[in-house]
Amino acid sequence: FQYLKRFDRGCNLDTFRYEALSVEGSPAECLQVFLLHCGIVDPSWAELRNFTWFLNIQLRDCEASVFCNPDFVQDTLNGF
After folding, report:
1. DSSP string across 5-65
2. Is the confidence at residue 14, as pLDDT, over 70?
3. Which top-level group of life is the source organism from (predicted)?
Protein backbone atom coordinates (compact mmCIF):
# COMPACT_ATOMS: atom_id res chain seq x y z
CA PHE A 1 0.00 0.00 0.00
CA GLN A 2 2.78 2.41 0.90
CA TYR A 3 4.53 1.91 -2.43
CA LEU A 4 1.31 2.26 -4.44
CA LYS A 5 0.30 5.38 -2.51
CA ARG A 6 3.65 7.02 -3.26
CA PHE A 7 3.50 5.85 -6.89
CA ASP A 8 0.13 7.60 -7.29
CA ARG A 9 1.63 10.81 -5.92
CA GLY A 10 4.57 10.61 -8.35
CA CYS A 11 7.19 10.11 -5.62
CA ASN A 12 10.61 8.63 -6.34
CA LEU A 13 10.24 4.99 -5.27
CA ASP A 14 13.98 4.32 -5.64
CA THR A 15 14.68 6.00 -2.32
CA PHE A 16 11.69 4.62 -0.38
CA ARG A 17 12.10 1.64 1.93
CA TYR A 18 9.26 -0.02 3.81
CA GLU A 19 9.55 0.18 7.59
CA ALA A 20 8.09 -2.82 9.42
CA LEU A 21 5.10 -2.07 11.64
CA SER A 22 4.66 1.41 10.17
CA VAL A 23 1.03 2.33 9.54
CA GLU A 24 -0.21 4.80 6.95
CA GLY A 25 -3.74 5.63 5.89
CA SER A 26 -6.98 3.96 6.82
CA PRO A 27 -8.18 0.46 5.95
CA ALA A 28 -10.70 2.02 3.54
CA GLU A 29 -7.96 3.99 1.75
CA CYS A 30 -5.80 0.86 1.54
CA LEU A 31 -8.63 -1.15 -0.02
CA GLN A 32 -9.37 1.65 -2.48
CA VAL A 33 -5.73 1.76 -3.63
CA PHE A 34 -5.59 -2.03 -4.04
CA LEU A 35 -8.83 -2.01 -6.05
CA LEU A 36 -7.43 0.72 -8.27
CA HIS A 37 -4.20 -1.14 -9.03
CA CYS A 38 -5.10 -4.83 -9.04
CA GLY A 39 -6.11 -4.80 -12.72
CA ILE A 40 -9.45 -6.57 -12.28
CA VAL A 41 -12.75 -4.67 -12.53
CA ASP A 42 -14.58 -6.52 -9.76
CA PRO A 43 -12.01 -8.67 -7.93
CA SER A 44 -12.86 -11.30 -5.35
CA TRP A 45 -11.17 -11.26 -1.95
CA ALA A 46 -8.97 -14.13 -3.14
CA GLU A 47 -7.85 -12.12 -6.18
CA LEU A 48 -7.06 -9.10 -3.99
CA ARG A 49 -5.15 -11.33 -1.60
CA ASN A 50 -3.13 -12.86 -4.45
CA PHE A 51 -2.39 -9.41 -5.88
CA THR A 52 -1.15 -8.05 -2.55
CA TRP A 53 0.80 -11.24 -1.76
CA PHE A 54 2.58 -11.20 -5.13
CA LEU A 55 3.27 -7.46 -4.98
CA ASN A 56 4.64 -7.79 -1.45
CA ILE A 57 7.05 -10.57 -2.47
CA GLN A 58 8.25 -8.61 -5.50
CA LEU A 59 8.83 -5.43 -3.50
CA ARG A 60 10.56 -7.32 -0.66
CA ASP A 61 12.91 -8.96 -3.18
CA CYS A 62 13.50 -5.62 -4.89
CA GLU A 63 14.46 -3.97 -1.60
CA ALA A 64 16.86 -6.85 -0.85
CA SER A 65 18.53 -6.72 -4.28
CA VAL A 66 21.81 -4.86 -4.55
CA PHE A 67 20.86 -3.93 -8.13
CA CYS A 68 17.89 -1.94 -6.83
CA ASN A 69 19.91 -0.11 -4.19
CA PRO A 70 20.39 3.48 -5.39
CA ASP A 71 23.50 3.88 -3.21
CA PHE A 72 25.17 0.94 -4.98
CA VAL A 73 23.89 1.45 -8.52
CA GLN A 74 23.96 5.27 -8.42
CA ASP A 75 22.99 6.46 -11.92
CA THR A 76 24.39 3.54 -13.95
CA LEU A 77 20.97 1.92 -14.43
CA ASN A 78 18.92 5.10 -14.61
CA GLY A 79 15.50 4.32 -16.06
CA PHE A 80 16.00 0.58 -15.86
Report:
1. HHHHHT--GGG----TT---S-HHHHHHHHHHHSS-SS--HHHHHHHHHHHHHHHHHHHH-
2. yes
3. Eukaryota
